[in-house]
Amino acid sequence: MDHLVQTTRLLGLSGSLRNGSYSLAVLNALQKRLQTSVSMEICNLNMPLYNEDHDGLAAPEQVTAFRRSIIESDGIVIVMPEYNHGIPGVLKNALDWASRPFGKSSLTGKPVLAISISPAFTGGVRAQAQLNETLLAIQAVPVPAPQVVIGSIASKIEDGLFVDEPSANFALGAIDRLLDRCRVMPTAYV
Ligand SMILES: Cc1cc2nc3c(=O)[nH]c(=O)nc-3n(C[C@H](O)[C@H](O)[C@H](O)COP(=O)(O)O)c2cc1C
User: Fold this and answer.
1) Residue 86 CB less than 6 A away from ligand 1
2) pTM of the model
């Protein structure tokens, strides 16, 4: 009967475009350790700056593809750094695109798990608080606490790979809570 188990589809977003991004390393590590019934596509957030003149049918192709990926997913996993105590512009820009056109946000009702990372021990917790405000504004559904905040990230990366077992297991526990939410309120539209 295994072949009848439906795959839960997650979408992974990295809040950094940097080559060698620690955020992306964390997403890659989590992706490899998901249960076999769960998949996670990782989406590149490199897209034009938000412009309301183009947020309907005339949206840039990267934006249209991004919105489609959100719609087709059951839930979202965001891993992001903190920039100047706030959300990285790349991520905020992508969320602003996804939130429109008004009343037709691809993120409405979508379960979202936020994970922040930082070389500092504070782990990006201030950016995460800001992100939760934004997710509420978009009417996405943030997965509740305990928050996943990964401090001292540089010491947890080896050869570009995220290798810290305790943090990885903690994050996987949060993904389990995200999956519970996805099953209770399925939102993927194929
Ligand atoms: C513009 C800028 C602002 C930053 N501000 C903060 C900050 O407020 N708090 C923090 O913990 N780290 C801050 N950092 C450090 C980032 O957390 C660090 O560079 C992180 O590794 C970036 O994520 P990435 O590895 O995924 O690219 C900042 C980095 C940059 C480039």
Assistant:
1) no
2) 0.96
